[in-house]
User: Which sequence fits this backbone?
């Protein structure tokens, strides 16, 4: 049952990918300018060079043929090389993707741990001053401009205290500041959603039933409330995970972190088509897989979902 | 209840503000003090030349030692891995360590450039269009193969096929004739005196003939083909992360004092500055002008010199044929204000279409800021209320977008309407090169050969490739043509003076300013050569050792 469901979802990847790729392909091609123009900077490319390069890059063919050729190459695993620097795209994408994965996992781990803990504390004393303070803190967290917060962290920990590197990707220490920055934005969201979800469950009959059986408040929250609020929390974390896997461009820029987001943006700016297409297809694959995993998680978290799906 | 919430919110806000204030006023924090234009502007080509490594200098307390690893952050990553394709300063700075040219630029104390034979040992001009060169014997490429005349021939034949810069620089070259292993002749299409200057530009660097065989008409596709004769081998390139160069043991020239150079691209200005402050790198380029006082206060070395890059607003002469209008556009702009307020002193008002460091430059009087006269001229020409389309890139040149806004306001003040279209670079440059549906466009041009021909001929000669103003003046054409042919430098200079005076009067540009180069480095590092052509040479950098 579950296997056939997974197989079905994986099969859905193909049309979804095709649609995504078609949209991205059209959008990028609609942009004025091409890699040859970028290559030549202030200078005009010589006509015969333009012709030779257009042929080599396949830019001389009609739009739909280019699209089909590209699709074929991507499906057959020939992702090509960067137009400007000759790096094999697959290698580049995987390296950048790994960096993004590290950042995403680290920041979401911090964000979920803090967010859920805060929500728990808040739910234990609803509408108390602690609850309100947590509310303000959460709001402050996700309304903080990322670049500003990132610069402050760099200024304190890298420039003044010289404890951590200001950017780049090295060992674990280079992951701390960017993941803290991203976590700040996400923990607030997680805390608020978790709190709301828990409070909703809180008012239901089975909670009262549990309480009337004499369970301690803490046990009620952990065993019944949290368990039932988990679906909402998993949805949010899954969603954030998917979004972050697409790259956190601003954080990556502030920390000069070589993630997948900046790779795609730089690729677009340089009209480095293979980089953009490879990056987008890869990210789409990952996001779809994350969605699939989240959906499977529902089945574990919520027995009702097992019956309703497919 | 509501009051209690308010109190809490207020308290938190207060806390945040206090914290921010505390952080902002910490010693060394970027303060808001107005930037006085820094008097560190040395004429050109600053090289804090240290005493040689071995010999103790005049001051016995300071010694200099070699550097194992020097880390530098530029604004941009390599734009291409092919030296003949690359056109941008950051990439060519890296390649200047790996590749070498037939001639080398030297700057004297006044910042004037001269060209000394480098890969060639001697040369002579056989007649008007034929030059003979002899290569220095014993030079090896990084892969061990010796440098011969055939490499020169192959490089010069490939360059124009793959790259815009070699195409321009080697345009006058008809063919290269190999005489023997070390001797070759360059046959020109027409007499062309600035040849030597062109042969000193990294885009005319010599690459191995066997790389040319593999990639005769397209860019190389792997860094393993980055093979030159320069002091550094290309070791590693990770896109967006680093480029690593290592001193080449078989180098024929003076041994480099830096063993390894690591280039880390950091596009964000503030992050790049924090890289230097945190000690992650030793040298940073493209320092934002507002950070100069802070960095100096913290004890970093800051070097600010004028570059050869002139920033201008090209005027589409076909759409604005009336010279009075074009002069009015020049009179309407307060260039000093742009330099002082927008660039925060990181530039100087242009006094010619080319920079003072370039051979052929002559100092002209900038158009004064005279909005009243500009308005009168516009009225006289019947251009009042006309709308101009002004396109500008964003993030390509220092504060380009802000400059465009200032220009827009100034032009509207003299009775024109201006529609500014800010575009991202690739879209912008493709529009500038392929369309003509605009009146004004902002661009920069750096005369990287340091000879006026490159900065004037390709931009102002009728039908020249970068004459995007569609400007045409037969007198200017004649001066520029003659200046290519006459060997006598005094005579050439005169032709260039005449050409520039005429261009100045015809005003196919709004002449703006020369950009400054600002580089900052750790205290104690010396010997970094910063050239006005936006090139930084680290080969002979050393570090100070106390005691």
Assistant:
């Amino acid at each position: 049952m579950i296997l056939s469901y997974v197989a079905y979802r994986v099969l859905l990847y193909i049309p979804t990918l095709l649609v995504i790729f078609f949209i991205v392909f059209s959008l990028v091609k609609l942009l004025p300018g091409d890699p040859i123009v970028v290559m030549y900077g202030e200078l005009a490319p010589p006509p015969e060079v333009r012709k030779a390069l257009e042929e080599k890059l396949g830019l001389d063919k009609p739009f739909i043929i280019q699209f089909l050729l590209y699709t074929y190459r991507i499906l057959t695993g020939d992702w090509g090389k960067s137009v400007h620097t000759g790096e094999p795209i697959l290698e580049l994408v995987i390296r950048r993707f790994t960096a993004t994965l590290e950042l995403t996992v680290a920041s979401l781990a911090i964000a979920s741990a803090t967010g859920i803990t805060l929500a728990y504390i808040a739910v234990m004393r609803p509408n108390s001053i602690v609850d309100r303070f947590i509310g303000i803190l959460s709001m402050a967290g996700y309304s903080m401009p990322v670049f500003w917060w990132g610069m402050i962290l760099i200024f304190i920990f890298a420039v003044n205290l010289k404890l951590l590197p200001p950017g780049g990707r090295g060992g674990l220490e280079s992951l701390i500041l960017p993941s803290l920055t991203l976590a700040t934005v996400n923990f607030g969201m997680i805390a608020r959603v978790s709190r709301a979800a828990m409070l909703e469950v809180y008012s239901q009959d089975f909670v009262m039933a549990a309480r009337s059986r004499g369970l301690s408040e803490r046990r009620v929250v952990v065993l019944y409330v949290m368990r039932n609020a988990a679906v909402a929390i998993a949805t949010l974390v899954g969603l954030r995970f998917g979004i972050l896997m697409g790259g956190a461009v601003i954080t990556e820029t502030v920390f000069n972190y070589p993630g997948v987001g900046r790779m795609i943006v730089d690729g677009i700016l340089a009209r480095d088509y293979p980089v953009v297409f490879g990056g987008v297809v890869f990210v789409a694959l990952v996001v779809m897989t994350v969605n699939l995993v989240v959906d499977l998680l529902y089945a574990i978290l919520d027995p009702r979902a097992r019956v309703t799906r497919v | 209840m509501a009051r209690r919430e308010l109190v809490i919110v207020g308290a938190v806000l207060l806390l945040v503000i206090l914290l921010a204030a505390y952080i902002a006023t910490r010693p060394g924090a970027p303060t808001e003090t107005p930037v006085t234009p820094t008097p560190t502007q040395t004429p050109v080509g600053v090289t804090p030349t240290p005493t040689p490594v071995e010999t103790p200098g005049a001051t016995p307390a300071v010694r200099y030692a070699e550097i194992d690893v020097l880390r530098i952050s530029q604004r941009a990553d390599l734009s291409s891995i092919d030296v003949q394709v690359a056109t941008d300063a950051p990439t060519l700075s890296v390649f200047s360590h790996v590749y070498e040219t037939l001639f080398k630029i030297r700057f004297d104390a006044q910042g004037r450039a001269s060209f000394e034979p480098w890969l060639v040992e001697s040369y002579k001009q056989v007649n008007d269009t034929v030059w003979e060169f002899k290569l220095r014997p014993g030079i090896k490429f990084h892969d061990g193969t010796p440098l011969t005349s055939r490499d020169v021939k192959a490089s010069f034949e490939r360059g124009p096929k793959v790259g815009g810069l070699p195409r321009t620089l080697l345009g006058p070259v008809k063919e290269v004739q190999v005489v023997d292993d070390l001797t070759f002749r360059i046959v020109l299409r027409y007499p062309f005196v600035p040849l030597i200057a062109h042969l000193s530009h990294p885009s005319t660097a010599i690459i191995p003939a066997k790389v040319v065989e593999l990639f005769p008409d397209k860019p190389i596709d792997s860094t393993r083909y980055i093979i030159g004769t320069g002091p550094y081998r290309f070791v590693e390139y990770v896109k967006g992360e680093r480029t690593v160069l290592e001193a080449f043991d078989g180098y024929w020239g003076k041994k480099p004092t830096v063993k390894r150079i690591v280039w880390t691209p950091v596009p964000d200005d503030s992050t790049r500055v924090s890289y230097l402050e945190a000690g992650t790198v030793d040298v940073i380029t493209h320092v934002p002008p507002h950070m100069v006082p802070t960095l100096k206060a913290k004890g970093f070395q800051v070097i600010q010199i004028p570059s050869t890059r002139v920033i201008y607003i090209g005027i589409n002469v076909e759409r604005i044929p009336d010279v009075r209008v074009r002069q009015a556009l020049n009179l309407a702009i307060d260039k000093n204000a742009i330099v002082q307020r927008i660039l925060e002193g990181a530039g100087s008002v242009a006094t010619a279409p080319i920079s003072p460091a370039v051979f052929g430059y002559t100092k002209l009087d900038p158009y004064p800021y005279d909005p009243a006269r500009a308005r009168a001229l516009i009225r006289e020409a019947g251009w009042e209320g006309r709308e101009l389309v002004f396109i500008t890139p964003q993030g390509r040149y220092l504060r380009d977008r802000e400059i465009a806004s200032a220009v827009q306001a100034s032009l509207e003040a003299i009775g024109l309407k201006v529609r500014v279209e800010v575009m991202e670079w690739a879209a912008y440059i493709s529009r500038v090169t392929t369309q003509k549906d605009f009146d004004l466009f902002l661009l920069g041009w750096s005369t990287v050969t340091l000879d006026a021909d490159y900065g004037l001929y390709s931009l102002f000669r009728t039908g020249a490739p970068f004459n995007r103003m569609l400007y045409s003046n037969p007198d200017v054409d004649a001066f520029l043509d003659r200046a290519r042919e006459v060997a006598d430098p005094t005579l050439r200079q005169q032709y260039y003076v005449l050409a520039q005076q005429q261009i100045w009067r015809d005003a196919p540009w709004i002449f703006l300013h020369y950009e400054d180069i600002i580089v900052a480095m750790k205290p104690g590092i010396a010997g970094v050569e910063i050239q006005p052509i936006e090139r930084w040479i680290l080969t002979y950098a050393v570090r100070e050792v106390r005691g």
Residues 160 and 286 of chain A are 38 Å apart (CA to CA).
